[in-house]
Amino acid sequence: NAGVTQTPKFQVLKTGQSMTLQCAQDMNHNSMYWYRQDPGMGLRLIYYSASEGTTDKGEVPNGYNVSRLNKREFSLRLESAAPSQTSVYFCASSQTGEAFFGQGTRLTVV
Amino acid sequence: AQSVTQPDIHITVSEGASLELRCNYSYGATPYLFWYVQSPGQGLQLLLKYFSGDTLVQGIKGFEAEFKRSQSSFNLRKPSVHWSDAAEYFCAVGPNDYKLSFGAGTTVTVRA
To answer: Which of A32, A66, B53, B79 is the least crowded, having the fewest Cβ atoms under 10 Å away?
Structure first.
């Protein structure tokens, strides 16, 4: 049982480049979300999807877009990466009160 | 608006000693409260959660937490710490299980 799988695990981008972070869960959860983790700031919610076909902004959505491709997959896109987006990104899913997190994607924008 | 404060950035504790991590929250109604643990290079793992009912909540790995509405607190405790408990701990609050606000985290170091 893989749980929540994120790809890639590491990525280095140049300023202005675009990329998509992939996330898939195999637990049949309705809710999925993307967080970013920065030192001393805990995790901050970027976007969430309460169910298939819906997405909503979280606390720090600027510079990001998301797609809930189907019930399993929820991708995060950076259209024009900036150094301020250097962070560790976590995808998570939940159904009944417990969020399951992926292993994270460490993104560096130079 | 919801928010969480973890007053202690770093705690060092001896193996076998007790541990208490503080968490204070701000939320207008009865919150969903969580404690997560993160080992280096790993994702977050749920230790315990509170939605309603008994204010003393038991979790995994021997951890417990107590919800005190009057103090807006949800402190995490463990009676006897093991070296494997060295990690970063996050308290979180929300109106449900996904739209969460996390604290900045407390790093726990365990000395032999």
So the answer is: B53
E strands along A1-110, which residues? 4-7, 10-13, 19-25, 31-38, 42-49, 56-57, 64-68, 74-78, 87-94, 99-101, 105-109
Non-local (6+) Cβ contacts of A17 within 8 A are A80, A81
Q: Which of B42, B45, B105 sits opposite A42 (nearest CB)?
A: B105
What confidence category does residue A1 fall into, taking pLDDT thresholds of 50, 70 and 90?
Answer: low
Token pair in block for residue A32: 């999925």
* Contact present, A21 and A32 (Cβ < 8 Å): no
**What is the biggest distance separating any 2 CA atoms in chain B, rounded to whole angstroms?**
42
Tokens of B58: 């038991």
Query: If 0-12 CB within 10 Å is exposed, 13-18 middle and 19+ buried, where does residue B65 land?
Result: buried
- Choose among B43, B97, B105: nearest Cβ to A94: B97
Interface with chain A: mutation pick from B98, B102, B107, highest number of A CBs within 10 Å: B98
Q: Given the structure tokens 């999925």, which residue do they identify?
A: A32
Q: Any CB–CB contact under 8 A between A31 and chain B?
A: yes
What is the pLDDT confidence band of residue B98, given thresholds at 50, 70 and 90? low
